[in-house]
Amino acid sequence: MDKTKYILDEKKMPTHWYNVQADLPEPLPPYLHPGTKEPTRLPPPLFCEEINKQEFSKERYIEIPDEVQEVYRVWRPTVLQRAYRLEKFLDTPAKIYYKYEDSSPAGSHKPNTAIAQAYYNKKEGVKRLSTETGAGQWGSSLAFACKLFDLECKVYMVKVSYNQKPYRRIMMETWGAKCVASPSIDTKVGRDLLAKDPNNNGSLGFAISEACEDAFSRDDTKYSLGSVLNHVLMHQTVIGQEAMLQMEMAGHYPDVVIGCVGGGSNFAGLALPFMKDKLTGKKKNTRFIAAEPTSCPSLTKGPYTWDLGDVAGMAPIAKMYTLGHDFMPPPVHAGGLRYHGMAPVISHLAKLGFIEAKAVPQIATFEAGITFARTEGFISAPETNHAIRVTIDEALKCKETGEAKTILFIHSGHGHFDMSAYESYLSGKLVDYDFSDEAMKESLKTLPEIPAQFK
Amino acid sequence: MDKTKYILDEKKMPTHWYNVQADLPEPLPPYLHPGTKEPTRLPPPLFCEEINKQEFSKERYIEIPDEVQEVYRVWRPTVLQRAYRLEKFLDTPAKIYYKYEDSSPAGSHKPNTAIAQAYYNKKEGVKRLSTETGAGQWGSSLAFACKLFDLECKVYMVKVSYNQKPYRRIMMETWGAKCVASPSIDTKVGRDLLAKDPNNNGSLGFAISEACEDAFSRDDTKYSLGSVLNHVLMHQTVIGQEAMLQMEMAGHYPDVVIGCVGGGSNFAGLALPFMKDKLTGKKKNTRFIAAEPTSCPSLTKGPYTWDLGDVAGMAPIAKMYTLGHDFMPPPVHAGGLRYHGMAPVISHLAKLGFIEAKAVPQIATFEAGITFARTEGFISAPETNHAIRVTIDEALKCKETGEAKTILFIHSGHGHFDMSAYESYLSGKLVDYDFSDEAMKESLKTLPEIPAQFK
């Protein structure tokens, strides 16, 4: 009987994160201060020293502290699965593998960085972390991490999700965090917005502003971000490093590496260690595909330009693919993919031609998720269904051409808190959203003015 | 750094189920036909041949078919964890281990038998399985299993849960099963009950009757039960066999083995392979503790006597600890523990003194679950919280006595579909239910009359 599952020995878990900045053919553009427009570090009132150092480091490998490795081992190493049943159902010659990140206590890859961030902040004397969350995957991961390192945690949850997904909020409270709907009355930006528009449903970009203000205004508090930034993506590289060893056990090297992208961190976590082989010329032909929603298509539709990370302009300006920080994505169920921009590292690599992007519509992603559940068993997060959709499409292309390609995708999380989305699909009520070039043009009008030398 | 997690190599997975009937000091009492009151097999219209054979087998080991092993390997072997953080929090010298069964697609140990039952029925030409479910753990597991073996699946879900927990229903539908609220209009017993009492909220014992009628009335359909019966408990012994190898890896043998009991299958799955060592005199001092709710305390309050397995008397009569088949347990969140009886194997071993029982009240179980989530990370099913409660109590006793005992418990499932119960606890709204001896006396009045030779 062939192996279906590749289990790594705990002793072989990575001891270092991989920092792709060491191997980029061109360095990343700097961050710009939202006020002065000068190159800047991450704002020290928001981020502790070690995180700031990691954000700009060029060292290839950064050691994972023992205390972080110890918590990783609550659920890591995660398994690599061969999707035999899916292959058989699709009748494809392709070999499909998936790296399975659902098994963390919070149900996704997110704790890989939450644990590291909580650890460094604790070590530097911080007492409390603030953050934002959309559908709640990130907020619950940070709540879990803060509890383990004995930090207080305050989560600003986008109001539309706060009301629609009470279970993720209760999960955060189970781990002892405080969670409020954003816009909230707990911050000045929140109060100002509510005064103008009491029924405002919030957005991820706005919740970031609230969480930043919270950290700016309290000496005991720093801010924590769950995606986009370099250090976050780097913390996720434990995924890809494990997967490389497991693919070796399986005796295959991936021809195609696939992940869904919102801010970009789960895709980066799987892809970057393999990307090293491409950047260094060892494996020139590996394809990397980022799967995004057609309704929030920063990589496939947005320009590569300078934009704010949040609505109120408290976070630095970054060069990235963006739909404009005022772009309001439609209410797709994949809440984690509803971000206007894209990680600078992913954007940079896409611009340089190392990453392809595919946009997929919502209904087709759930169709893929149902196929996956009915063959492989696992019920996937709506975000993950984007990666599954693109994987199935690639496997079906192999069926046409007869090529027995090896496809590896990241199964970033489970859908246990998203069953109402599945019901919506199964009852035929799920909709696709058109993307409006006009709306994007409108939101791109508020891009920040940038000094000429950075253009 | 000490190991926190014991990962078994796929190659070391058990190839046989362990059948405790081979090692019992006295044989199990027979089943009696609910009509004739004569010793009987399982009704062949309900159960296929191989299942019937396994139910009464005295062979010590029964081979797990390759096809079943192959599906087990979607999520098995499961990990054994050392609960260092919980130990530290409790400041106990006890060593706490847990066998973690949350990682199956359905989120609990239940698929271990669902897969086997679906396989044997498929092999014998059955096209469709019917079953009942309370909170939905079992129904979703059988839905998953049926989809993988291409069987239709019909689930009768206790109406109060059907209405309160729509997400478990959607999970079943995601795997292609049909799920209706019980009492339903799809069976005669259901229609009769609804005619008398249109607002009846259903019970597990009644849903069993509906599922049995469904199978009795259709040639293409057999019935499937998720706990209580011998073959079900036996299929769960993969858990304990894996755990024995993993405890060996850890270098400890458990002094105490703990699990929650409703029908008894998850506890049996972990306990029986260790029980073999006790029954055969190899390890005489191991304690086995079954944790049950104070509100449905069959082992601690019920008599050991002959009773029906279901309300309508379609299933055989078994000798077991029971509160009476008409006993209506209060609506505790641990829906899987709301069964009037107890597995004959567990009952028999408890009667013979090999198993102790502890009843724990609902609020105390959630307090334990919160402690577990805030130390070990994982959010547990309300059922599992009963095992955690008893584990913590035993560990605290060790703190008093200074004994460094080794405690092993089974973490039977996650609480992702039970967050409203956690909210209820966190907001101080959760209640405990008194157990009424009077109510039990009342329900014991309808115990079946049994011929003298079986008394």
Mind sketching the topology for me?
2 copies of one chain form a homodimer.
Chain A: E1 5-6, E2 16-18, E3 31-32, E4 39-40, H1 49-56, E5 61-63, H2 66-72, E6 80-82, H3 84-90, E7 95-100, H4 111-123, E8 128-133, H5 137-148, E9 152-158, H6 159-164, H7 166-174, E10 178-182, H8 188-196, H9 204-216, E11 221-223, H10 230-235, H11 237-250, E12 256-260, H12 265-279, E13 287-293, H13 298-301, E14 304-308, E15 317-321, H14 344-351, E16 356-360, H15 362-375, H16 382-401, E17 406-411, H17 419-426, H18 437-444
Helix pairs in contact in A: 2-4, 4-5, 5-7, 11-12, 15-16
Write a structural description:
- Two copies of one chain form a homodimer.
- With 455 residues, the first copy, chain A, is α/β, with parallel strands linked by helices.
- Chain A has 18 helices and 17 strands.
- Chain A has a seven-stranded mixed beta sheet, sandwiched between helices.
- In chain A, helix 4 (111-123) crosses helix 5 (137-148), helix 5 runs parallel beside helix 7 (166-174) and helix 15 packs across helix 16 (382-401).
- The longest helix of chain A is centred in the last third of the chain and has 20 residues, at 382-401.
- Chain A is globular and about 60 Å long.
- The model of chain A has no long low-confidence stretch (mean pLDDT 96).
- The A-B interface holds A 1, 3-5, 7, 9-10, 66, 69-70, 73-75, 81, 85, 103-105, 107, 144, 147-148, 166-167, 170-171, 173-176, 370, 373-374, 376-379, 414, 416-417, 419-420, 422-423, 426 and B 1, 3-5, 7, 9-10, 66, 69-70, 73-75, 81, 85, 103, 105, 107, 144, 147-148, 166-167, 170-171, 173-176, 370, 373-374, 376-379, 414, 416-417, 419-420, 422-423, 426.
